Amino acid sequence: MLKKTNLGKFISIGLASIVAFGLACSGEKLGQGGNSGSNSGGTMRLQGSGASFPKPIYEKWVNEFGKINPNIRIDYQATGSGAGQKALLAKTADFGASDDPMSDEDLKNAGGDILHIPTVLGAVVLTYNLEGVKEPLKLSAQTISDIYLGSIRKWNDQRLKTDNPTLNLPDAEILPVYRADSSGTSAVFTDFLSKTVPEWMEKVGMNKQPSWVTGVGVGAKGNDGVMGQVKQTPNSIGYVELTFAKENNLPAAQIKNKAGEFVEASLESVSAAAAASVAQMSDDLRTQITNADGTGVYPISSYTYILVYKEQPDTVKGKALADFLWWAIHDGEKYVEELHYSRLPADVRKRVEGKINSMASGGKPLRQ
Description:
Order of helices and strands: HEHEHEHEEHHEHHEHEHEEHEHHEE
Structural class: alpha/beta
Oligomer: single chain
Number of strands: 13
CATH architecture of the largest domain: 3-Layer(aba) Sandwich
Strand content: 15-25%
Low-confidence stretches: 1-36
Mean pLDDT: 90
CATH class of the largest domain: Alpha Beta
Number of helices: 13
Number of domains: 2
Shape: elongated
């Protein structure tokens, strides 16, 4: 039998855990209670895995959210969209992240409803390392396709010179750099080309991890890897999320849109792509906004998503995750523009609020 003094300690600890759990579910900061998501010190740990496209903003959000919720620790690993989807399905991560929405088949076999939570909008840009070229390079979908299919192999090819008559393009071999891992950035990039270039659709198609043409270019892992390869290799070109090009002081090409304009990736041009596509967004919020209609639209724009199970197996961890998502699309928005992402359209954010509020544990809403 327990001694009386030990029994008293046991009861006290149990009551403390119950009080902490009640605070967590009431919307206040999570306390030091016992739960399956906490370590012995009471720290709540959430694991995320997935897209490198939103890595800069997610790292910022995790850091800032942690300052006001020091007992919640979120670890986000930029493993690529494909890996993030797999981690969520395998339940080795509390949330996944992907620029490419999950397929109908994967959702059907997920063992529970999965919510797509759009967080921000971004742009996939073609960044390049060309010494002496001071003005932005102009690229059409056809030209990009020809470069990555190996039809255009030199920078001074006439097809490039036609769209860039004022640039002194070198007589040098082009080194295309692509993603070697399963990537939402690749999915967005190949989706744009598939919509606009029949040859690309026939030979490659839209894919998170396409089969690249043998002997053309080199692969690298993550947006960081592609950016690093371009930065250190003269005469190279690669596709990355806009923030990575900005942070490395490398240029981004102007891309020809559906209206025939060469458009720079910017907060305004990405927001224009989203605005033109809101009416086509499905009820589950899965959508692609590449090659959108309208003037001033940047044509390789994309939402990026956090993926979560609607029914959370752990009430306290689920509450922490729902609160983080709510904070991200509200208070977290003030950090978006400084990292070159665009905010969600107001009507899309309203729909996202409904998705977050639908998260539950044991059939009971996590946010009340």
